Amino acid sequence: MADAGNLKKLPLDAVWRARTSKFADFAGYDMPIQFEGLIAEHNWTREHAGLFDVSHMGPCFFALPKGHGLEGDAAHKKVAALIERLVPADIQGLKAGQVRYTMLLNDEGGILDDLMIARPAEGAAAGDLYIVVNAGCKNEDWALIEATTKDEANLVRADDRCLLALQGPSAAQVASTVIAPELADAGFMTVRRLETQRFGRLTVTRSGYTGEDGYEILVKAEHATDLTNALLAHAEVKPIGLGARDSLRLEAGLCLYGHDLNPTTSPIEADLNWTIQKRRREAGDFPGAKRILREWDLGASRKRVGIRPNDRAPAREGVEIMKDGKTIGVVTSGGFSPILNGPISMGYVETEHATPGHTVDLMVRGVPRAATIVPMPFVPHRYYRPKKG
Amino acid sequence: MTRYTKDHEWVRMEGDVAVIGISAYAVEQLGDVVFVEVPGEGKDFAAHDTMATVESAKAASDVYAPISGKIVAANGALSDKPELVNEAPEADGWFVKIKPSNKAEIDALMDEAAYADYVKGL
Question: What is the average pLDDT across A208-216?
Answer without folding.
Answer: 98
